[in-house]
Amino acid sequence: MATTPIPSANSACPGWVIAPQSAVVSHFSSQNHRLVTVDGLLETPHHAISQAILQNFAKITPQYPGIRAPLDPAVCAQWLGELAPLLSQWFGSGAPRWEMQAWFSLVTTPPAQLAPIQRLPHVDGTDPEQIAMMLYLHRTGHGGTAFFRHRATGLEALTAADYPRYAAALQADVARTGLPPAAYAADGAPHFERTHVVPGTFNSAVFYRGNILHSGVIDNHAPLSADPREGRLTINAFFRPAAA
């Protein structure tokens, strides 16, 4: 994973300059989850799209309903040089260094072909110190990101201690009502309640703790193109405090 070295002017990646200084910190739901929004994160967002067109996208994990291509590690290093101190400030972390992984991502799986796990809200892990970022680079009929509460347990974020209780309750939900229909999660019914929605404005980015239950806002009736110029293109990143 990339770490936090600040690149010199000679190693900077042209076209990938970010402007995170306009970040707005807000909170949502009764559990006061922190959300950081940066409008206009990339100074030249169309450069990112032009680079996405050149990538070899592939299905990387069974959980993600689409295809991905890794972001250049040099770009990750450049971004970390600016984002690392801000992440510590935004999320109250004492981490002296951060690590980062990031991908170009395109949701491409038709609703009828979704696996059961892809029809439900999910978490990126149970570590509350892991921060997720979504940078929206599309102008499609699809939206941004929605966050959820599990009705049976009241849980909105999962820790390692919470997960067994959540998994057992969700299994009981499915045993009682059957698997959710083959569609992307909308309002979360019947087992989840939507608590907040990020609209996914072009070239805006949001940062949040990855252990909060969430799902992409996908229109089940709109096309899902594999072309970065036409599809629901995002850059997804995960930030973790670096090991000592």
In short:
This protein has helices at 45-53, 73-91, 163-177; strands at 24-28, 33-38, 66-70, 98-107, 131-136, 145-150, 192-198, 205-209, 214-216, 233-241. It is an alpha+beta fold and 244 residues long.
List the main descriptive attributes of the protein structure presented here.
3-stranded antiparallel beta sheet; globular; 244 residues; alpha+beta; 3 helices; 18% helix
What would you say this structure looks like, in words?
This protein is α+β, with helices and mostly antiparallel strands and 244 residues long. The chain has helices at 45-53, 73-91, 163-177, and strands spanning 24-28, 33-38, 66-70, 98-107, 131-136, 145-150, 192-198, 205-209, 214-216, 233-241. The model is unreliable at 3-10 (pLDDT under 50). Strand 1 (24-28) and strand 2 form a beta hairpin. Helix content is 18%, strand content 25%. The protein is built from 3 helices and 10 strands, in the order ββαβαβββαββββ. The chain has a single domain (23-241), classed as q2cbj1_9rhob like domain (Jelly Rolls), CATH 2.60.120.620.
List the helices and strands and how they pair.
Layout: E1 24-28, E2 33-38, H1 45-53, E3 66-70, H2 73-91, E4 98-107, E5 131-136, E6 145-150, H3 163-177, E7 192-198, E8 205-209, E9 214-216, E10 233-241
Antiparallel strand pairs: 1-2, 2-8, 3-4, 4-10, 5-8, 5-10, 6-7, 6-9
